[in-house]
Amino acid sequence: MVSQVFIYIFVAIVMALVIFFGFKQVVNLQDLSQKSYYISFKEDMTSSVNDVYYMNKGSTLVFSKFSRNKELILPSEIKEVCFRDNIVSFDIDKYKKFEVENLKGDICIRIADNRLGFKLENVVIGDEVFVEISDVGT
Fold this sequence. Notes:
four-stranded mixed beta sheet; 1 helix; four-stranded antiparallel beta sheet
């Protein structure tokens, strides 16, 4: 009888540990998913700016739900993205700001449903070529 009690206690402890570590892994998986959205956004933004930089003067790329280029997906915690010159920053410190070469802007864009809509335009002033970012109002 006493050995049966120890078996029940042991089974209860094992079940508790399995539930605890299983929940912890699910949370870690969700965090990894959000980090992958951040990395994809960073790479897509840099690539898009480079594409527009090498286009003709006045060329544009629009990223919106109604255009050929769909909005870029961001982690769910981010509610606003700011562009100051060539620095891209976020409203929370969890995700590091980063630099995008040839990008110019002075705008903060609110995020709708984890998606960022914007317009990139090739601008030439004098001898300087850069890509200007603006909101498309999605």
